[in-house]
Protein 1
Amino acid sequence: MAISEEQVKHVAKLAKLSFSDNELHEFTSQLGKIIDMVETLEEVDTTGVPFISNVAETINVMREDVTTGGWDRDELMKNVPESEEGFIKVPAIIDNGEAGA
């Protein structure tokens, strides 16, 4: 299946891309080669070949999610220079223009 420059222009327009005439010709040629390779792969007889979604033997390499105890809030707040109602108080970054931020 050949791809035309008009089809490449259409896809480029959808992707909001613009190409010079030289680039358009080059991309048309490259996309044509890619389509030819995919068509060649479609000709391969895969009868009896099981579907493989992962080529590696390992299924899950992540550790098990185990909860652990947290830190004591009062102990943590001992290191805070200023707090208010159980929260760490920090300087305002956004103050709606009231303090010239």
Protein 2
Amino acid sequence: MDSFTDTRTIKWPFISSPIPIISISLVYIYVIYFAGPQFMKNRKPYSLKTFMQYYNLFQIIANFWLVFNVVTTGRPFVAIWKYCESFDKICGDNTEKQLKSLWWALLLKIIDLIETVIFVLRKKDRQISFLHTYHHLSTAIYVWLTLRYFVHSFTMTETMLNCSVHVIMYSYYFLSTFGSNIQQRLLPFKKSLTIIQMVHIAFIWIVGSQGLRPNCGNKIVKYFSVMTFFNGIPNLLLFLNFYGSYKKSRIT
């Protein structure tokens, strides 16, 4: 893998070695499945309402900022129909800016893990599903692998789409912290959020499959496409299964 290491990104925190991302992942699993539940065993759930409001507001602003940066200084739409071309060729003079945006996206994915810790402290065990933990961890590791080894122009598109979805999602979460009346009004949109998640994952999976064609790009493009393909399948299936729970709850 050393031959694929991107020398432009390994100078940044979390990228120079796999130890930080592996350690964060293991600590995350330990806290949410072992240490956290044990700590909360004989305690009442914490409210954390103010913290959640500020956290959700931060997520809205940070994700919007990333979308703005990628759209204004990158070429995320060109990367769709010029998928087989290299990151440097599509970005041109803005290559360094886009690489930094991708690093900030990685940092944001790591910050996303705080959300699960909040669930543990509030004893919202039902929300700590396999889908939730797998999606958070797999996304963070996927972005890390991309920055470390497989920098590709389509990552701009993925960042734009994923962060746009998160702006909508965290806006929903932010509004839901203002009491049960607001939550009831927002409830009809909950199903739409899952649909938006599935559509954006399916789009990334389909477009990313272009690299599986024999005449598409170099080895980095190929490996990035394989990674995107196999990362998309379980995420999409898990969201489809979760979407099916809406129909089951309606029947029961």
